[in-house]
Amino acid sequence: MQLTRYTDYGIRILMYLAIQPERTELFRIGEITDVFDLSANHVAKIVNHLGKLGYLKTIRGKHGGFKLVTSASDINLGTLVRQLENSLVQVNCAEPYCRFTPVCNLKSMLAKALSAYLAVLDSYYLSDVIDNSDKLLESLADPTISILSLN
């Protein structure tokens, strides 16, 4: 299964906020767009959604911004993916209608695969993703650092 960009970016945003727990000032959309080279409109939608889900506190206005209000150790990846993904359906047998549908085994196999995929994600938390926060912060400080040099 492949995550949508929306979910991918949502996880990246939460990672970015979580590796900077000592920061007192609010984060801004522009900072996220600069770090990850994303559209401000797209980031704003994701931040708003993460706020509605209770992961972020968002403050509107000139001096507004957002911050993480949920501990990284309380953000379950399986739950987060379920909340951010629009649909977890792997195949649509109805459009166009597939004549194999009444006797096909593929849909049940894919459902089992999705169940296993989500079970693995359920066993991890955002804190597991950022357990190398020193290397993650280092990668932000120097954009010339390659992935290979961080291993």
TrEMBL record:
<dbReference type="Pfam" id="PF02082">
    <property type="entry name" value="Rrf2"/>
</dbReference>
<dbReference type="InterPro" id="IPR036390">
    <property type="entry name" value="WH_DNA-bd_sf"/>
</dbReference>
<keyword id="KW-0238">DNA-binding</keyword>
<dbReference type="GO" id="GO:0005829">
    <property type="term" value="C:cytosol"/>
</dbReference>
<dbReference type="InterPro" id="IPR030489">
    <property type="entry name" value="TR_Rrf2-type_CS"/>
</dbReference>
<dbReference type="InterPro" id="IPR036388">
    <property type="entry name" value="WH-like_DNA-bd_sf"/>
</dbReference>
<dbReference type="GO" id="GO:0003677">
    <property type="term" value="F:DNA binding"/>
</dbReference>
<dbReference type="GO" id="GO:0003700">
    <property type="term" value="F:DNA-binding transcription factor activity"/>
</dbReference>
<protein>
    <submittedName>
        <fullName>Transcriptional regulator, BadM/Rrf2 family</fullName>
    </submittedName>
</protein>
<dbReference type="InterPro" id="IPR000944">
    <property type="entry name" value="Tscrpt_reg_Rrf2"/>
</dbReference>
